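Sync notes, pocket subgroup
Present: LS, DG
LS reminded everyone that the earlier model was apo-only. Rerun requested with FE2/S2 (inorganic) cluster included. Inputs:
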Amino acid sequence: MGVKLLLEKANVPGIRTYDVYRREGGYTAAEKALKEMSIEAIVEEVKKSGLRGRGGAGFPAGMKWSFIAKPEGVPRHLVCNADESEPGTFKDRYLMEFLPHLLLEGLLISSFALGSNDTYIYIRGEYAWVADILEDAIVEATKNGWLGKNILGTGFDCMVHVHRGAGAYICGEETALIESLEGKRGNPRIKPPFPAIQGLWMRPTVVNNVETLAAVVPIIKMGGVEYAKIGVGRSTGTKLISACGNINKPGVYEIDMTISVEDFIYSDEYCGGIAGGKKLKACIPGGSSVPILPANLLLKTAKGETRYMNYESLSDGGFATGSMMGSGGFIVLDEDQCIVKNTLTLARFYRHESCGQCSPCREGTGWMEKILQKIELGKGESSDIDLLWDIQRKIEGNTICPLGDAAAWPVAAAIRHFRDEFEWHIQNRELSQTSNFGLQHYADPIHVPA
Amino acid sequence: MSLQFNNEQMTEFKRLVAHYPEGKQKSALLPALNLAQDSFGGWLPTEAMDYVASLLKIEPIEVYEVATFYSMYNLKPVGKFVFEVCQTGPCMISGSDNIIAYIQKQLDIKPGETTKDGIFTLKLVECLGACGYAPMMQVGKIYREHLTKEKVDAIIEEYRMQVVALN
Ligand SMILES: Cc1cc2nc3c(=O)[nH]c(=O)nc-3n(C[C@H](O)[C@H](O)[C@H](O)COP(=O)(O)O)c2cc1C
Ligand code: SF4
Ligand code: FES
């Protein structure tokens, strides 16, 4: 069993309630932070912990906190990003659903460190019942003196507000989220200015992911240095992985980032192997935006080394032969899955979610979907693959926000690694409507030149 | 104006607005539209949007802009129960196509349509954050996960019974 810092108590009956959470040692980190530590000391511990943002980009949390502007007389805000809409990702939901007070405790400590008296949780609109759980927890925490005025007699006031969105993946992007929180369409802002200078209502704002903010609790409890000893290299602490697709045990797992991808997929403690005794064909290891890898490149790097479930190892080889940790949405595809169809559903997703501000993203995502649809329906032409490649290349890097890249990468990676399968679809128009390219060579060991 | 929040809904509206600082009440627009949609039969007629605009003291166009942007707002009438079935990658590789086809057959409607009796609407949606519990759909506030044909039958029956009980 690996170390569990976040989900250790997830199975304790009643842990969702204040009383049980408190009895199990809850709010002791908040007590320590507010009563015994200075703001600088808290930020320092988070810096030492090496905690990287768990929302997808992996930016060091302590560093982000230290950028927040502190102009005299202007309120600052912490905003918790609970928009969680990246396909394959459902870890924040789990955390909020089962351990709402862990998030609130993390929010309290972080709000104190950032000087946020009004902290917002922006939760995707569809998670309506999770919003209710959070609201209940806020009432309990307020009743017990952990939120509200003059918390623990420190003179610090803090209220946490739950703000439900209304269905838009783009509102997970932090500046779109801020726009949405201001009651507008979720159009990402052009940066700079960065939210740390001018964010919500043009006030200095820090946006962090749910898991990032929850991780502040164990960091304060054990100290940043001890936290950093867990894991490996710059992948410190634990990471929540939401595993789904064709595996025996889909679900949310906490890993310490020293486990190999192979063990994660096949061990009974985690995914429990491929469902139905089938073979592994491919995997999208960090949410739909990150490059898909064929089985052989997933389990071993191009150099033939074991690949591990951490930031560095998953991205080993760059986009040519690697992928990314992303949001921790681990999507497993078995030998019977069609890469063209899978890529099509993702292209449709990004077309649907593009906010429409930049032409390359608005038009390009639509074109990619149409071409993929054509290939999937057995009407593809051989020039379509190069056309797809060309479109994705023209989107990447040419847009206001990273959604453009996020839409381009899955298509690029699918063509890069599964070009044979696209070609087969185009050459076997009829056959492709009733049968499947299958596993082919995608799990064969890669020849590593000596 | 005929569409209005009742007392209970108005109390909730005021609670929502109170989350934001003085003068920033526009921030309550999304939560207020969520409330309006739930209060006025599951969709947002222009009248409802204009009403929300007047309550928040903003221009109606500011509300229309938002209502047309977010996928959870229904701008046309819907059935009593809306089956919002996820069709994105992870659900697709876990068999959502079959579930969607089965629901279409059982309800005899296509995606985007409502049954003649006005009870069910079928809507295809993108990832709802339940990929590990696929196939799945959202109905109202709740998620129905690990769907099978048998479960779909039972769910349809369950809602039909609810309608009968209400009448
Ligand atoms: C299109 C898009 C969608 C995003 N969705 C989310 C999301 O749902 N949740 C999240 O925490 N971060 C999301 N992000 C990343 C945020 O912009 C931001 O980097 C993050 O919330 C910062 O928190 P962290 O540093 O704690 O990870 C998204 C980014 C993009 C470009
Ligand atoms: S890249 Fe796409 S989603 Fe991002 S701002 Fe441009 S159009 Fe909008
Ligand atoms: S893909 Fe269906 S819930 Fe995520």
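DG: Chain A has three domains: 18-229, 240-334, 339-434.
LS: The radius of gyration of chain A is 22 Å.
Action: DG to write up.
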